[in-house]
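Run log // design_07
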């Protein structure tokens, strides 16, 4: 389930790479850095959450099989943390591409 979190970072990196020019303003560069950090750190948090929930869920499911559905739901909520980072990064990248060229050169 946690494999898609890495794809989020790759999607943002491709979008940022496509919008890099030879001459960029500090404003655009800062937005691209912040977008990368947003998706990276949210992916890190989602990975930790999936690991912790997965470990506790497997141990709990081995003792009480009814916990499986609850474990899967909590794993989905943990995965959504990475999706939120992707959404923030996409919004930041689109804002960086709309910036005026003369701002903070």
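design_07 sequence
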């Amino acid at each position: 389930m946690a494999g898609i979190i890495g794809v989020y970072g790759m999607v943002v990196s491709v979008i940022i790479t496509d919008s890099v020019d030879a001459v960029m303003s500090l404003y655009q560069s800062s937005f691209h850095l912040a977008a990368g950090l947003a998706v990276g750190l949210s992916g890190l948090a989602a990975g930790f959450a999936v690991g912790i929930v997965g470990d506790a869920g497997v141990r709990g499911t081995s003792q009480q099989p009814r916990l499986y559905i609850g474990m899967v739901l909590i794993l989905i909520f943990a995965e959504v943390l990475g999706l939120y980072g992707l959404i923030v990064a996409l919004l930041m990248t689109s804002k960086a591409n709309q910036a005026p060229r003369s701002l903070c050169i």
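The longest helix spans residues 26-63.
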